[in-house]
Amino acid sequence: MRYRPLGGTPLQVSVLALGCGNFGGIGSVPELFGRGDDRDTAFALMDAAREHGITLFDTANAYGGGTSEEWVGQWLASRRARADVVLTTKVRNRVGPHPADEGLSARHIREQIDASLRRLGTDRVDLYLAHAPDPRVPIDETLSAFDEQVRAGKVRYAGLSNYAGAELVAAAGAAASNGMTLANLQSGYSLLDRAAAGNFPLCAEHGIGFTAHSPLAGGWLSGKYRAGQPFPEGSRMTLRPEPYQQWRNADTYAAIGALDRMARDRGLALAALALAWVLTDPGVTGAVIGPRRPEQVAQAVAALDVTLTDDQRSALVARTSSR
Prior knowledge:
Helices cover about 40% and strands about 15% of the residues.
């Protein structure tokens, strides 16, 4: 495993993070609560991550309706592992039936950090992220509430997730004006979804680390989706296909086939090559992986040994640019 400082902070994180979004559900979608990994699988995945040196664990208050945080907290307590883990959680998505049960208002943040700490069984999270922008709340209110939690000792560092364009510019500018540290931006980034690279210069300017979620594009770059074949039972395309529908076309299947051949020419699995492409980007601090089986953790760690030159990285991009 390799470790890097997160942005301009002294916080050292593993370049692979364990995504816990499948614990007890599939992300924050209420109708999929109970459809994700069960508790035993979640514990086995966290054990495997720890064995391979992964220290950055990523969850959210809405994952599995709070189940993900509960199981992470139970695992941390049972393994006496809290000191070994850089713990990330998030706030923004809906956690109840009422209009006020979501968002980035100061009131909601104050309520939800305490609820997350209870479920996680800890007195402080290392990284607290706004899960997505909230256009109803001024960014100054959100960042002031985050800073309040830092000063209260409940959060070490704050950051953002799924911010881009004008919303990211506004957040970075507001943080700089108020002397506040934004440690991390977490957004989707993969060979099939490269838009986040446009944020890298701003992150570098403001000392914000970048972690990529969905580095395998929701499983599309794992090789499990093939033209003319049904989607595997239990895959994201059978449970939650909406975020990935834009890739359901002949051009994407052709690009994936070409990438798979390039991977095999190097003696690699497609997933290893695709993950290596993300990890070798100089704008990327690390990547959040979402394994469903413990052996997939080892497969992801193997991608750290894959080196890619600038020309090789460009060749991989060229295979997907005609989509």
